[in-house]
From TrEMBL:
Pfam families the record matches: Ig_TRAPPC9-Trs120_1st (PF26254), TRAPPC9-Trs120 (PF08626)
Any Gene Ontology CC annotation: trans-Golgi network
Domain Trs120/TRAPPC9 N-terminal intervals: 196-260
InterPro entries associated with the record: Ig_TRAPPC9_Trs120_1st (IPR058565), Trs120_TRAPPC9 (IPR013935), Trs120_TRAPPC9_N (IPR058563)
Record-annotated Trs120/TRAPPC9 first Ig-like domain positions: 601-703
Origin: domain of life: Eukaryota
Start and end residues of each stretch annotated as Disordered: 285-313
Protein name per Swiss-Prot or TrEMBL: Foie-gras_1 domain-containing protein
Family statement: Belongs to the NIBP family.
Organism expressing this protein natively: Strongyloides stercoralis
Position of the signal peptide: none
Amino acid sequence: MKINSLRIAPGFPGLEDHQQIQILVVNLSEDVMIGGESSFCKLLNRLNDHSVKKVGDQEPHYVYIKFVTQTDALNLKFANLQVYRRIFAVIGVAFLNNDDSIKEIYEKYENLKKSCDEDALVDNRLLIFGGQKEEINGENLREIIYYESFKDTQTFNYDIQGLLKNVIIILQSKRLEDINEVKRCPLLSGEEKYQVGLDKQSKNYKKKCIGRLKKQIGDLHMLLGLPSQAVDIYNIAIENLKSANDLLWLAAAYEGIAVASYYALIGNEPLIEGKKGSVQRNHTINNFDTKDNDGSYKNFKRHSRRNSDESTKSLTTTLDEKMKFKGFLKNIGKLTMGNRGFIDIPSIMDKFIQSIENFERFSYSAKIEYQCVIKAASLLFWERDYIRCESFLREHIGKYLDDSFVTFNNFEKSYICVDCANIFKEMNFMRKHAFFSRLAVLFRLHVSDEEPRTENDYKYVYPLLYNTLTGYGIKLKSPLDIDKKKSNFNITGPSQIQVKAIQEVFMSSLRGGLVHSSIRHLCFLLQNYYDLLDQKAIDSMLEELKKLTSKIEEKHNLNQIIQLDYCNVLIPAVQWTRFPTVIGVELKALKRNLDVNIITKRGSYGDIFIYSPFQQGHNNVKIYWSVDCYSTVTLKIVNCFHFELTVSNLVLLVDGCDFESIPIRLHLPAAIKGQEETVIDVDMQGFPHSEGTLKFIGYSCEVLGVKNVVKFDNEQFIKTIRVLPKLPMLEVDTTLEKQLLKEGSHFETETEVSLFSGQKFDHTITITNTSDSISIRNIRIKIQQPKISGGPQLISILESCNKDFILLPKASKDIKITIYGIDPTTAPESTNETFPVSSIFSKHVSDNVSIVSSTSNLLFSEAEEQVSHDLIPYTGRLLNSTIKITYAADLKNENSEIYERTYSIGIAIKIVPAITISNWHVLSGEDASTRYIVLDVNNLTDYDAELNYLHDKELSVQAKDTCRVLLLCSCCGEISPFAFSHASQKPSFHMQKEEIEKLRRILEDHVSNHLNIRWSIPKLNINGNVPVGSLLSSVSCLKQLVVPLLTVTLSIDKKPYTSEDDIIVYIGDIVTFNITLLVSTKVSFNFSGTISLLCFHDLQNGEEHIYVPESLITIGSLVVPFNVQVEEDDGLLRVIFKKDFRFMFRYEGIYKVKPSIFLNKCDNIEEQKLLESAEKEFFISTASFNVTTKGTKS
């Protein structure tokens, strides 16, 4: 049974010494190690289980046994004066082999008994483990107990209990001896010589002897757990000793009665360890707070015992009686002791003071006098009367430490200071504790010149100085404690004094040879007091740190708690958060091809979307990592030293997942005084090896010769990220020419293509699933490229993956694409397009091709013009496009999440202008259902080109020259003449745009086959198609290929007019103007109108026409009416009527004659709107006349 003692520290003089029976246990042989632990230590632990014995049945009390391993000279000297100092039994222990001699062990055992006071020994034992049992013989076989081995000790407890029982019985018999007749007189060691000549028959001598014997009987009562009876006996002894003027024994009796009175007050019952916080000490039976006359409280909650001896038996009869006593004692707080008055704490202290005063009379009893002082102070301490305790120590301890007090040497004075420091530490008087600890160091190190201080001296004083740090406001708590709250070290108090105190601790550890402790204290100083230290002190500390770290083989670990076994000191860990200083932590997303987008399958209702303009410009994309993917965390680090700091083996500390951090080495630039510190962004890489929630809690590194481990206490630095399971990854290969990746590139692969406008090349992109076990599904390909309003796209997909395609592990798939060289002069340059223009590309297509392009059709900004004036001539356009391959892992999980990745291929397409279209016109064709498209084709190369169109027609175009190509195209019958009018009447601009684009695509599909012009440059051995995207994107041009509501064709004198050349006539010549009016067969309602002729001058250059009706003389009808009826017809047009107008010119000049149609209003409003919109789209031919006078016609 382990109990709580009234002892402040191990080896400290305590009140419980008076009630402990001492038994000496000595190992007489070599110790044997069992399982790495000493057998003798195990034996002592087993003996300590018998340290408390309950004695008596009717009136039970407790006897305490104290097993010691060595004797004390002071105890041997004063064994008769204070019986508790005696050794009452000896236990010899021997661990033997078969070869060891038991006889030698027995001789040692006999010598051990002789070294003790044999008269005080009541019983002894020799425990032999192993050896030859046959060798055991002798007279005292009863004392020898043999065990075959240490493990085979079934009767051990029984044997020890037998020994203790014998000791207790013999002591019980001694306390009951009749001492009324003086048979002997107890003497101290060496007191016999002073007995010569004394009258032993005198009354004074008899009182002296009776007093001493009574005093010893009182000690025996205390040892046997009967403090109440001991008080009565001590009182008798005091009366006799006082009468005999035996002051030394009187002092011992006063000490004995003080201790006995206290135990009679608090009880003798032991308090089992673990119940300390739940049981309170009761003065008699009351558990109330009592207050002395001076106002000091005596409430005690640290230890508690209940009265168990005969003096309190009457108080435990019934509950009613207890309540009565409790009410009575509430106002008294004292223990009544029969006819001898009462016992309370002040009276007990008076006994201690009287004992001290009597001890002071004898110089040779100074040590037991000091022990009495400490016991008295301990009593005040256990009563929590800390103020009186401090005052008592201040009053009585000072004389022992005075230089004139030579009874104690400096070492003994040092021990006195240590004892006082321990008391003040337990009272939480940390300044007092620090003062006496430092005073103990001074006494310990105060040696003469002939005796220099040794390393052991500094080792001894080191724990004393170290424990003083708390007295200066430095709380020595590990920053890595799980119970830490806000800060690693809570430092309060005067900083300069703290620095000095830590430096003293450092010097003592340094001179004591404690290298690791010295390093730890230096690091603590630099971390917590760096701002208070001057540069010279910092440099000297760093130099000293360098020397210390060079003495040890392994790196000193600041994270490891240092345990000094010789003094039971634990030095907490230190976090170097300054060297270097981390001011920020940022998680980086995976590489773009490894980045994961999670798609969660929601219910049928989905998420509610609420638009907010405040969300614009904020990137709230969540970051995810994946198992075995290269991941990055950025630390923002600052070096506060004035020199370059080298940091090695810098790794991250994580929690939650298995993470392999790649160690790195840094060289941080020095801080310059007066300038802002340089912040270095350090990318820490690693690989997560398990899925889950990964938390970054700190980092570790090696700096200045030590290993530093830092755990973040700033919540902003602690980052958490979700690690997804291992996902498949695509490996992409392509037939495109690859380029080196530029820094900051957004692509995984960058390619480049060079081609002439109109050329087309096919390429293949091969995708491979690199995973060994996971398939890939839902592969989607998206192309981001400049928008083209008409003609072929820049990049087109020929062959891709269908929706249900699954790419198995290690399988591959080819994707076919086509790259077409669009007209670079018509490619979009607006930054609002899908890709902004990089526009000018100053690079030749190949070494043997030198082409200078015309820039007449390009609009440049000022910045682009500056680039175009580069020494390298401009030869084309650079258009950027991106192919994005999005794919999902074929994995099943509990949350039905889909993990998607995207692989991006950047394609820089350089297009060199070759054969392009600069202008176009639409003219009437061979009949009303056809049109001629006239194209101006430019050869922008330095070589002659050949054109092939309409399957069999060829045309040569010289370098830097332009030719005109006439292409016959039929009108489109799929579109109604009112289609564009319907599109413009849509309710929104977006709908109008979509409808017009739909009509444009229909016309584009219709006319594309007619615009197929092939070109070739023989000298370069290249060929392609003339890009007509600019024409196909022109809605105004394509609208002319729609069959209009009305079409008017012309013939002059029965000859069709199909050109824009002027017809030469004379003034007065009659011209027959044959008009044929045709209507679209798409018309679904009737309408009517009139047709007449208009004569005007065309001034060109965008000027308005000048109408000159007076220059024209009409012969016959001037205005002819017509009426259109709905009829079914399979053609595109049908003829309404034919009419011949005859006229002559009055004046010379150049005139334009054009039929003019006026439609009558319809009763139906919708039909009227359709007519008004279609009126603008009438296809009416105009004839040009050059009128001259007679005689000038050639």
